[in-house]
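[Structure tokenization] protein backbone as discrete codes

[Encoding] learned vocabulary of local backbone shapes

[Begin record] amino acids and matching fold tokens:

___
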Amino acid sequence: MINRASRFQSATSAASTGRGFTLLELLAVIGIISMLAVVSLLSTQRVTRDVKLSSGVNQVLGALATARAEAIRTNAPTLLTFRMVKDLEDPSQPAQVEMVVAGFTGQIVKGDNSGIDMNNSGGNSDVCRFVPSSVVAPRYLPEGIMIAGPAQDIGVVGDPTGTWNFMSPGPWTPVDRDSDGRYDYYQSAEAGSTFGVLFGADGSMITRNPEAQTSSSNRLYNWVDYDNERDTNGNYVLNCSTSNGAADNAPFFLQRESDAESFINVCQFLAVYDEIKAKQDVDYTQFIAAQNSDMGAGAFIEERDEQLGTWLDENADRIHFNRYTGLAKVGGS
């Protein structure tokens, strides 16, 4: 008969012979936990990016619907245009894409007007003047969400049908143009474009303002006048983005300053994408280096289109329009 003390000694002996974890096993467990943590973090980041991009697409769709409704309400051509803005009062705030609804004023300014001054091409150019809506407030996309659109009317490149309008991605540097000790604007290290979508009075998406009764041989531009500034002769002034402050047709494809005015290139569709992801996959420094070289604007644009444009085809969400109604949708053609 085994007494209670013997049973206790047997249990104690069995417990003492139980083997613990070795150092190698502990390291293996730690490694597995670390791998799972990394996978979980990457998955969370990807989901967060997808949610932000989806939110941005929905905001663009909402702004397009508002601009279309405003065109019908006012019975006048209406633009939804996109530009980069950054708060001069609070530099810690990120640059964001601002979506502005602007209505046609009925005014057409000649390109050789002293406030526009398109140099030699001005006499054969007409500029439709738009102003921001007084009833529709601007909307802003989430940080890092950008928009691109086709640029099929730029004469500085060999094949304009394959050219994209890209917004200025930064980095942004504050500039004191008049040396008064106060910053006037931010300038981006990389050039970009100002563009938008134009709706007719019936709500359809159009590429040329039907109310602009101009010569068929004249080039027709669109311009959003944000500040209603006039010169001493009463001419409206285009506060464009050229480095010396003089106006010419460069702003049609070169938009480097946050809050600057520019000609608006009308797009037939839009691409919404994550700029942070784009910079992870595409080397942006090559674009800045090309821009600062002597290769010329056309070569710079074509080089960027080849790299970033190809990336857009695989990673951006496309927004297309019904050619008859102007209604926007994601995907399709």
